[in-house]
Write a structure and sequence with these properties.
Helices cover about 55% and strands about 5% of the residues. It is mostly helical. A two-stranded antiparallel sheet has the order 1-2. The longest helix has 19 residues. The protein is built from eight helices and four strands, in the order ββααββαααααα.
Length: about 170
C-alpha cells in the first residue's frame, strides 16, 4: 500500500490526508515527537517514520470499521515514544528487556507532553501484546498492534512502510 505524502514541520513526511492531519497535527509538530527522527527503529527506518506508518494504517482501519480512528491515530504516533536507541538500551535504561518495558516508558513520556484519553493510554500501554501480558481491551488497540507488527516486519526486511521518495513537498 502506497500513500501520497506531504512535508510538514522539520521535514516530517506524513500521508497527504487532511482529515488525518487535523486529528494529529499537534503531535506531528511537537518537538518531543520530532526528536524520534534521531532514533533508528528497524532497518533504516526512524522511530518517527515507523510511528507515522503505524498511526496512519491504524487510522484507516479504524475509520473504515467505524471505530475510534482519532484515538488509534494519536496513540499510533505515540506508541514508541520511548526516546532512546533501543539497540543499545541496556546502557540507557538498565535493562535489556526493551520489548517488554518500552510501552510503559512511551506512555510516561507521552503523558508528560500530551493530554491523553483513557483509550489512547490503553493502546500505547498494550501495543506489544502478546509479548507483554497486558491483554488489549479495545478494537483500536488491536488495530495498532496489527499494524505495528506489519510495519516492523516490512522495515526489518528492508521494505519501507511508506515510500518517502514519492513525497510532494508542500511549501
Amino acid at each position: 500500500m502506497e500513500f501520497a505524502l506531504k512535508e510538514m514541520a522539520s521535514e516530517v513526511y506524513v500521508p497527504d490526508d487532511d482529515e488525518y492531519i487535523n486529528e494529529v497535527k499537534d503531535i506531528l509538530e511537537n518537538e518531543t515527537f520530532q526528536s524520534m527522527k534521531s532514533f533508528i527503529q528497524h532497518g533504516k527506518t526512524s522511530c518517527l517514520e515507523h510511528c507515522i506508518a503505524v498511526s496512519y494504517r491504524s487510522y484507516l482501519t479504524c475509520k473504515r470499521n467505524g471505530w475510534n480512528a482519532r484515538a488509534a491515530a494519536r496513540a499510533g504516533l505515540l506508541h514508541d515514544l520511548f526516546l532512546y536507541d533501543w539497540h543499545w538500551s541496556r546502557a540507557e535504561t538498565g535493562t535489556s528487556w526493551h520489548g517488554i518495558t518500552h510501552p510503559r516508558r512511551a506512555l510516561e513520556n507521552a503523558e508528560k507532553v500530551f493530554d491523553l484519553t483513557p483509550l489512547e493510554k490503553e493502546i500505547i500501554l498494550r501495543h506489544m501484546w502478546p509479548l507483554t501480558l497486558w491483554l488489549p481491551r479495545s478494537r483500536e488497540a488491536y488495530a495498532v498492534i496489527y499494524h505495528d507488527k506489519v510495519c516492523s516486519l516490512k522495515e526489518t526486511v528492508g521494505r519501507p512502510s511508506l515510500r518517502l521518495t514519492a513525497a510532494p513537498a508542500v511549501g
